[in-house]
Amino acid sequence: MSSSSLPLSYGEAGYCDARYVEEGGASYGWYQRYAALRPFVRRLVPPASRLLMIGCGSVLMSEDMVADGYMEIINIDISLVLIEMMRKKYFDLPQLQYMQMDVRDMSKFSEESFDCAIVKGVSFFMLQWLSNKYLDY
Ligand SMILES: C[S@@+](CC[C@H](N)C(=O)[O-])C[C@H]1O[C@@H](n2cnc3c(N)ncnc32)[C@H](O)[C@@H]1O
User: Fold this and answer.
1) Taking a C-beta distance cutoff of 8 angstroms, is the pair 95, 70 a contact?
2) Which residue's CA is minimally distant from atom 12 of ligand 1?
3) CATH architecture of 13-134
4) Which segments of the protein form a coiled coil according to its record (predicted)?
5) Is 133 helix (H, G, I), strand (E, B) or coil?
6) Is the CB–ligand 1 distance for residue 25 below 6 Å?
7) Which terminus of the chain has fewer Cβ atoms in its 10 Å neighbourhood, N or C?
8) Domain segments of the chain: what residues?
9) Residue 56 burial by CB count (10 A; 0-12/13-18/19+): exposed, middle or buried?
10) Separation of 112 CA from ligand 1 center, angstroms?
11) 75 forms bridges with which residues in the sheet?
């Protein structure tokens, strides 16, 4: 039996969907906001880049990046509930696309689809998933 205090479903689509239904689509950004990350992002990522935002959540970072001149950001998240909310919210921002996708299977994208991928606040989900799958302590 796992000693983890987190539910085994943590990091699975159902768990994430339930969280977003509860939050009702309110914007929330984990850790740093774009304003704090901007100096690094602007230095490393030209605005014309094709960007992949992995585990986008309801974060404002993609919107802020468009306001800062970025032109193509594909946002993926495992939660379909979240993706539908974001599609409605940003229907008039063609620079942002939202797709429901599990980062563990991105085979829908061909090689070299993106110039850059941003992953913010998702590694904890992945570590939990790996420990659920492989560790029994
Ligand atoms: C802690 S939130 C971070 C959200 C956002 N990146 C931020 O910085 O605020 C983690 C996000 O990763 C998503 N997620 C969890 N597991 C995922 C997976 N296997 N594939 C894609 N997204 C996943 C969750 O639905 C959630 O929106």
Assistant:
1) yes
2) 55
3) 3-Layer(aba) Sandwich (3.40)
4) none
5) helix
6) no
7) N
8) 13-134
9) buried
10) 22
11) 53, 98
